[in-house]
Amino acid sequence: MASSKFRKMLNKELSHFAESSKSGTQVSQFIISTYMDKEDDDPQMPQLEVSHAEPPTPSTSTTSESPQLSLLGKAKTAAMSRISGVRKLRSTYGGQVPEFGVEGQRELAVHMQRVSTQQWSTSDHYPFKHFPLAPFIHYMTGCADASLKCAFLNSTDGLLDEWGPNIFKINELSKGHSLTAITYTIMKNRGLLKTFEIPPGALVTYLLHLEHHYRDNPYHNQIHGGDVAQSTNVLISCPSLTGVFSELEVLAAIFASAVHDVDHPGFTNQYLINSNSELAIMYNDESVLEQHHLAVAFKLLQDSNCDFLVGLTKKQRQLFRKISIEMVYTSLVYGLRKMFGSFVTVSFLSLNFTLM
């Protein structure tokens, strides 16, 4: 009896709630269908009638859907659509992926590989250890003689593993796609594409889409993103760090470096907070830029054409996301320091001793 009275009172309150808005109707439907036992309904108790229902959409299934799942799905879609700066995918990359991820001028190989052009005489006896570069040397010198010798210093390693490659030249030769060329080449050279079964086309599609979301700022642009990715690659290549990081940690570190300033508006966190900007309001004045960079980066991954992490398990994806968030949240510098710990000090001390 008491239960029946309670249900009558609940039904009355929900009726008023449902009349206020469409969202109220959805909530009331969910509560009634989930928590009110229809089998024991009092026949004298009036049932809640909904006067306005959501119109069906073309993508709506004809089969009945759980109210709670419908509400959660709509809430997720609405929330994700409010991420500022996210734009639709312009194109996907299909077919054979070029050596460096993007089409570029032939000289690009010289700037992506460790090559010394100090001596070009045929009297120099330096073998072509990295034979695929021969066509590029031919292009640069105009000499078709295969006996032409060039100085290749440890040519199995690339300039991307050293400090100081000409990032601006790489951007020029890659036709404005330095971030894609650098990040793709680093991941490929490290064997990460094979280790995690990363589809090359999906990776290039994501990186090009990521570049599209970098703004044309004087500093926080896609060139800077590629530059930081290359610098991170050098840091984690220190001999003293060999075997310290797992392959997944390396993948996350390169990814975080590439995305860490995507859609940067060109202002500091403090300026955005003081000016009461939309980004500051969205992220509650807490690490505004860092949260936004991460939101955009992972939102782009939700496009099936851009999801290059399809080969990862659920646990691996969660760990990948956690590492990436920690690195970007701490502005990379502190993230690298946290990852390296004392190894950073040892590495730089070793470097100083070497230079001395």
UniProtKB/TrEMBL annotation:
Q: Which UniProt keywords apply?
A: cAMP, Hydrolase, Metal-binding
Residues the record lists as binding Zn(2+) 2? 261
Q: Which cofactor does it need?
A: a divalent metal cation
Q: What does the record give as the active site?
A: 220 (proton donor)
Entries under Gene3D superfamilies matching the protein: 3'5'-cyclic nucleotide phosphodiesterase, catalytic domain
* Sites where the protein binds Zn(2+) 1: 224, 260-261
Tell me, which GO biological process terms does this entry list? signal transduction
Residues forming the PDEase domain are 135-356
EC number(s) per entry: 3.1.4.53
Q: Which Pfam families match?
A: PDE4_UCR (PF18100), PDEase_I (PF00233)
Q: Name one GO molecular function term.
A: 3',5'-cyclic-AMP phosphodiesterase activity
Chain positions covered by the region annotation Disordered? 31-69
- SUPFAM superfamilies named among the record's database cross-references: HD-domain/PDEase-like
Q: Which PANTHER family does the UniProt record give?
A: CYCLIC NUCLEOTIDE PHOSPHODIESTERASE
For this chain, the family text in UniProt reads: Belongs to the cyclic nucleotide phosphodiesterase family.
Which protein is depicted? 3',5'-cyclic-AMP phosphodiesterase
Q: Which organism is it from?
A: Toxocara canis
The gene name on file is: pde-4
